[in-house]
Amino acid sequence: MSGVLFRRTWAAQRIRLLVVMAGLAAWGFLLPVVYATFGKEMEALIQNAAFANILDIFSRFSGGDVFSIRGTVALGLVHPIALALVAIQVVGFAAAAVAGERQRGTLEVLLARPLERRALYATLLAATLLFAALTEAAVLGGIVAGALLFGVAGDLRATDIALCWLNAVALFGALGAISLAASVSFDQLGPAMGIALGVTIVGYAAEFLGTLWPDAAWLRVASPFRYFQPTRILAGTFEPRDLLVLGAVFVAAVAWAAWIFPRRDLAAPS
User: pLDDT by residue (tens digit) across 29-82?
Assistant: First the structure.
């Protein structure tokens, strides 16, 4: 790993990272405010016989709700807004990290320095994991701050919040590793970004479809989002297998990148 490259990567990404983190913190802060202001009234309404199935459908779709503080935390993590913002930073950065440099013709200049390809890859992977950790900390920090400020944090436990953060970092660490593996495998940004976004979007679609449509439940096994379950963690039923599966995906992606990148013939761009 190269400390100089890591610092330069951080410097190049800091503005976008701070903007994304600010957006996530604001999103997270908003949800406890909604719960504290309207949550109990909305829960009483939604549990009326006329709306008997709405809560169940909504909870199955998103994995969270604004009718309890624990559901609010889960919703803050699994809502498409939060997932998209994190993906912009983590998946987008990883997919462009090498393929983007290669397409611009600047990768050869970088590798002309005394920097091994594996060191370059390890540095970019470390940056990807750091971005995942910081963005997920931002949304959870916003949620906890809002809950504390509005006096609705009584049912939250620090251990559960920490496990939710770990599960979220594992998810986006795996997606980031896949994106970076695609980035070191292609000379153009298009294919790398296509694979990165394809895995992310198709994985989310499979989880969404399998959750709402019982006949398609088998699709969830192949989705990385299947193994991101903050609702279950907050209910006190943390499943270590989820981390093991996401860890296995991460290791497989790293192994592929570590094998293919040093063996690629990177001729000067024409």
Answer: 988 887 777 665 555 555 554 444 545 555 554 455 556 777 778 888 888 888
- From CA 135, how far away is CA 168, in angstroms rounded? 10
User: How many angstroms from the chain centroid is the CA of residue 10?
Assistant: 18
What DSSP string describes the chain?
--HHHHHHHHHHHHHHHHHHHHHHHHHHHHHHHHIIIIIHHHHHHHTSGGGTTHHHHHHHHHS--SSSHHHHHHHHHHSHHHHHHHHHHHHHHHHHHTHHHHHHT-HHHHHTSS--HHHHHHHHHHHHHHHHHHHHHHHHHHHHHHHHHTT--TT--HHHHHHHHHHHHHHHHHHHHHHHHHHTT-SSHHHHHHHHHHHHHHHHHHHHHHHH-GGGGGGGGG-GGGG--HHHHHTT---HHHHHHHHHHHHHHHHHHHHHGGG---PPP-
Interval 13-25: pLDDT, tens = 889 999 999 999 9
Alpha-carbon distance of 90 to 132, in angstroms, equals: 6
Residue type at 233 in one-letter notation: I
Centroid of chain to Cα 168: 6
Distance CA 148, CA 35 (A): 12
Query: CB-based contacts of 13: which residues, under 8 Å, 6+ apart?
Result: 89, 93, 127, 131
Task: Give how far Cα 30 sits from Cα of 23, 124, 245, Å.
Answer: 11, 32, 32
The pTM score is: 0.84
Exposed, middle or buried: residue 152 (CB in 10 Å: 0-12, 13-18, 19+)?
buried
Q: How remote is the C-alpha of 58 from its chain's centroid? A: 21
